[in-house]
Structures are given as C-alpha cells and as structure tokens.
C-alpha cells in the first residue's frame, strides 16, 4: 500500500509526511506531457497516477517518468484518483465511479451515482466515499456496491475526510489531543448528537457552506454546522478537530465530537485551499486568493507570525494559491497561479515560516502535490506532470 494513495495523502486529509526529510534544495527530475491540465496525483509503490480534465488517466513509473498505460474516460476527471488494495478508483464528472486494475488500467467495475462527481474520493477500511451533486455515497471498494447515500440540499464541495475510532486510538496522523480548556464558541444553528465519541465518522462540506458529520458505516447524521460560504477542498481532521476554509474567507475549527466551533479566523478574500494542520507546532496553514499562505495558531485562530509592529497574516507568495499545503518533514510545499512552487520552513513552532526555496514551473500549479520520501509530484496548467526531487541535510522530527 502507498503512503500517499489519495488526496492530501490519507483519509484525514492531513497533507503531512513527517517521516520525510524536508527538502533544502529541489531539482527537476523529469516532466511528462499529458493530454490536458492534470488534477492532483497519487502514489502507489513505484507508480504515480494522475487524471486530467480532458478525461484521461495516466500511470507513470515514479523514478523514470515512463508511461505505463493511459485510459480514456467519457467525462472529465476533475479530482485526484485513489489507489488501494482492490484497485485504482476514478471519479468521472458524469457521475460514474470506476475501478481499474492499477497494473494495466483494465476496468474492474463501474457504479453510477445520482449526481456529477467533482470531489476527490476517500478510501478507508474497505469503503469508498464519493461526494457528488446530490450528496455523499459510500461504496464497497471491492465490488462498487452502494452501501448508503446521504442526500444533501446542495452539492458536496471538496474531499470527504474520514476519522475512525481505531485511528484515533493509534493516533497515526495526529498528536495527543490538546487538553487546553477554552470556551467553545456558540453555534445556535448547529445540530448535534451527543453520543458520537466512539463512532467512526466521515465529514463532508457543501456548496451551501455546511459541514456535516456522518456515521461512516451507515450514513447516519451525527451533527451539522454552518460556515460562511462554499467549503474549499473539503475538511481536514487533526487533533480532535475538523478544520474547514470557505470561499467567503472564513477558516473554522470545529470540535470533532460535537460540531461546536473552536475558533474562527476571517480574511478579506476567498480561501482557495483546505487547511493543513501541525498540532505539535500549534500551526494551521491555508492558502487564499490574496496570494498569502495564512498561518494561525490552533487554539484561538490568532495570527501566528509576528512583524515589527503587528502580526502578519502569513507568507506572501507571487500569486493566488492553487494547491492545498503539504508538509515534508519540516518544509511546507505550496504552489500558486504564477507557476511558482515554494518550500517554507515550518520547523519548531513555525513562528518564522521563512521561504527556503522556490521552483519556477512556468505555468500555474494545478492540483495539490503528492509527496514521496524524497520527491514530490505536481501538475501544471500546460498539461504536464513534474517530478521534483531532493537531497536534504535536515534531520527528520
């Protein structure tokens, strides 16, 4: 199994590989031409998979960039694929989920859903979660059989995030829960179920600006809570909280069990990425249309970076952010609309966030990078997939 097999690397959408040594110097290893602008790539063993808005799915050797196979679909592939033990899964814009053989691209099954698919799939414990125009559906990964569907008033926005009780016990993706006692902000419109602590959960955002928590195996609604606008890229689960950013410029952290708001942070422009959270550094990162990587703490949502006189909203980039942040070791990687890909130092408590390096990819970054232990894979608007690799003198945390 891969360690970056779906959007932002795992079902929590953490976007973090702390086992990788953060890159000091990045070089281009290879570039592959595609038939259209790519979406976010994913990795499995020695292969990188990527779909395009033209409707193609490609498999390339990770080390060399040699194309292994190409599959043409009848609709756009607007999201990252998912690869697991039982296949490679594609969400095609016309409402079809397809399972392919990862080695050959041969189709294994397909399932038609009630609405258009524009959200990345989630894979967890043998179930695929597909957000579509009519709601969220859970499918058996092995067969494509629909297990349940939860209907929503508006389309699902961004990738679902899955949080299972077994993962919380192992703490595979996060640190120990923060036991700091603070007053949770009141949300009069939130609807909650008190008995959710030990349940497996899937979280999903909508175009209407709602975050919904569902029981992962049945689709039963556990709670829902409002935000200000359409959710961008979907929720992120970290340290007992659910973080979302929306198109109205609001970043909210919800208590994962109850849906109560932990903090709210607002900007004057739209957020354009999902949050990425480093609990140990007390830092939350989210990109926006104002050309900033915004940085807050995880307790109160206050600006974390300090200037000479006032706190800074974040790290200034060359243009609007085009990808959700991902972290390799202690370096955060993020791309923008000008084609710049940046490495930001987030070591220690992430209080400085100095720019370590940037690579000019010449055309706008398309989708969120996929991280291997010593390389990242990222697409650009000119229909290319790039492998960037590094050697680092940094020690892993």
What does this structure look like?
By secondary structure, the chain is mainly beta. The chain contains one helix and 36 strands. The chain has one helix at 165-170; strands at 16-17, 25-33, 42-44, 47-51, 56-61, 67-72, 82-84, 87-92, 96-100, 107-112, 122-124, 127-132, 135-140, 146-151, 156-163, 191-192, 201-206, 210-215, 221-226, 236-238, 241-245, 250-255, 261-266, 276-278, 283-287, 292-296, 305-306, 311-312, 314-316, 326-328, 331-335, 340-345, 355-360, 365-371, 375-380, 384-391. A five-stranded mixed beta sheet has the order 1-30-31-32-33, with no helix packed on it. It is globular and about 60 Å long. Residues 171-189 have low confidence and may be disordered. This is PQQ-binding-like beta-propeller repeat protein. Residues 1-43 are annotated as: Disordered. Residues 9-27 have a biased composition (Basic and acidic residues).
């Amino acid at each position: 199994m891969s360690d970056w097999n779906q959007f932002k690397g795992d079902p929590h959408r953490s976007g973090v590989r702390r086992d990788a040594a953060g890159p000091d110097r990045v070089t281009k290893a290879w570039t592959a031409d595609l038939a259209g602008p790519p979406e976010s790539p994913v990795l499995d063993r020695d292969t990188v998979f990527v779909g395009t808005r033209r409707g193609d799915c490609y498999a390339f050797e990770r080390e060399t960039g040699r194309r292994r196979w190409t599959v043409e679909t009848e609709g756009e592939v607007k999201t990252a694929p998912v690869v697991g033990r039982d296949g490679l899964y594609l969400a095609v814009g016309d409402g079809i989920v397809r399972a392919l053989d990862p080695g050959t691209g041969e189709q294994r099954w397909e399932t038609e859903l009630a609405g258009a698919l524009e959200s990345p799939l989630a894979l967890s414990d043998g179930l695929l979660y597909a957000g579509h125009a009519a709601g969220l559906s859970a499918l058996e990964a092995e067969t494509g059989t629909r297990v349940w569907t939860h209907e929503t008033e508006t389309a699902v926005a961004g990738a679902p995030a899955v949080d299972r009780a077994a993962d919380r016990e192992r703490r595979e993706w996060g640190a120990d829960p923060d036991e700091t006692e603070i007053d949770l902000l009141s949300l009069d419109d939130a609807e909650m179920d008190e008995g959710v602590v030990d349940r497996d959960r899937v979280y999903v955002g909508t175009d209407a600006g709602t975050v919904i928590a569902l029981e992962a195996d049945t689709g039963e609604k556990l709670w829902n809570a409002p935000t200000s606008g359409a959710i961008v890229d979907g929720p992120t689960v970290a340290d007992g909280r659910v973080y979302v950013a929306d198109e109205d410029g609001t970043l909210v952290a919800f208590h994962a069990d109850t849906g109560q708001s932990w903090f709210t942070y607002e900007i004057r422009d739209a957020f354009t990425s999902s949050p990425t959270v480093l609990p140990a550094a007390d830092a939350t990162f989210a990109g926006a249309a104002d050309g900033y990587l915004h940085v807050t703490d995880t307790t109160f949502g206050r600006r974390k970076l300090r200037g000479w006189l006032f706190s800074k909203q974040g790290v200034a980039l060359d243009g609007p952010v085009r990808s959700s942040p991902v972290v390799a070791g202690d370096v955060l990687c993020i791309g923008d609309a000008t084609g710049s890909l940046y490495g930001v130092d987030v070591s220690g408590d992430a209080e400085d966030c100095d720019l370590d390096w940037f690579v000019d990819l010449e055309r706008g970054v398309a989708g969120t990078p996929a991280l291997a232990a010593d390389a990242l894979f990222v697409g650009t608007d000119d229909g290319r997939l790039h492998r960037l690799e590094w050697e680092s003198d940094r020690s892993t945390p």
